[in-house]
Specification:
- There is one protein chain.
- This protein is of the alpha/beta class and about 260 residues long.
- The chain has one domain: Vaccinia Virus protein VP39 (Rossmann fold).
- Helices cover about 45% and strands about 20% of the residues.
- The chain contains eleven helices and seven strands.
- It has helices at about 5-15, 35-50, 55-60, 85-95, 110-125, 125-130, 150-155, 170-185, 200-210, 220-230, 230-240; strands at about 70-75, 100-105, 140-145, 160-165, 185-195, 245-250, 250-259.
- Strands 3-2-1-4-5-7-6 form a seven-stranded mixed β-sheet, sandwiched between helices.
- Helix 9 (about 200-210) packs antiparallel against helix 10.
- The chain is globular and about 50 Å long.
- The protein starts with a helix and ends with a strand.
């Protein structure tokens, strides 16, 4: 008797069987629509909260190793609009820890948005925190236009180094050098979060985002990102031996290095 589950699994595997790393996301193009780009950065906090789930990553991979009374440093590589760096900084403060966070991105458009959003948060007290009666503390939070190679050359080090949706952007020939930079910059742990390429995930994201996030690149670039992303075994094959792959719900992969 045939197994219907096996047939469905085989059919899903035939869809998106291989990575398509040569695709270019719209927001990475120099001539992309500036309004759509701004809206994409503006919607990122929602997407990252629901899909990237950095709150869970912080709880399981960062917070248990923080110590009261000690200043720790975290580097967010490819920080984009800055929402992940800001959230991790805020969560640590809420938990009573001192975690200085630096976000870096080579794209000046991303840094412009991150700085503008930071200034707006300071001027109005922070829209999210005001509702809770809190005044956000932005000391120990900064954004720089630079890259890992330059920081490494300067001899910078951080306790934690993280990145979100960076690995699938890189040509495979550049990944080894990038991971080497991250390892050199980290004193304790590196966490690279990315998408797990999946036919089911592709369909779910396509359907769920179709009526949402208007006039932005969220849906178009999200679908391109899935096509460019790794499956677990593919990611393991390009990681150095000391790295490990952790699967997360929904359709997430973490590449983790413990120093």
């Amino acid at each position: 008797m045939s197994n219907p589950f096996r047939k469905k699994t085989a059919a899903a595997t035939r869809f998106l069987p291989d990575r398509q790393p040569d695709l270019i996301e719209w927001m990475d193009r120099a001539d992309c629509d500036p309004v759509k780009l701004h809206n994409t950065y503006r919607y990122f906090p929602v997407i990252n909260r629901l899909i990237s789930r950095w709150c869970a990553v912080y709880r399981h991979f960062i917070r248990p190793h923080l110590v009261h009374g000690t200043v720790f440093r975290l580097l967010d590589v490819g920080s984009g609009g800055g929402d992940i760096a800001k959230n991790i900084h805020r969560w640590a403060l809420h938990d009573g820890f001192r975690l200085d966070v630096t976000g870096i991105d080579p794209d000046p458009r991303a840094l412009e948005f991150a700085h503008a959003a930071e200034d707006q948060s300071i001027s109005n007290g922070g829209s999210t925190d005001v509702a809770k009666g809190h005044n956000p503390d932005t000391s120990g939070l900064r954004f720089l236009q630079t890259d890992t190679a330059r920081l490494r050359k300067k001899g910078e080090t951080y306790d934690f180094v993280i990145c979100n949706h960076v690995l699938h952007h890189l040509p495979e020939t550049d990944i080894a050098a990038f991971l080497e930079d991250l390892a050199a910059l980290a004193g304790f742990r590196v966490i690279c979060s990315d998408i797990e390429r999946s036919a089911v995930g592709y369909v779910l994201f396509s359907v769920a985002t179709w009526p949402l996030f208007p006039n932005s690149y969220i849906r178009a670039d999200g679908l391109i990102s899935i096509k460019k992303s790794f499956r677990p075994q593919e990611l393991r094959e390009i990681l150095p031996d000391e790295w490990r792959v952790v699967r997360q719900f929904p359709y997430r992969l973490l590449a983790v290095l413990d120093k």
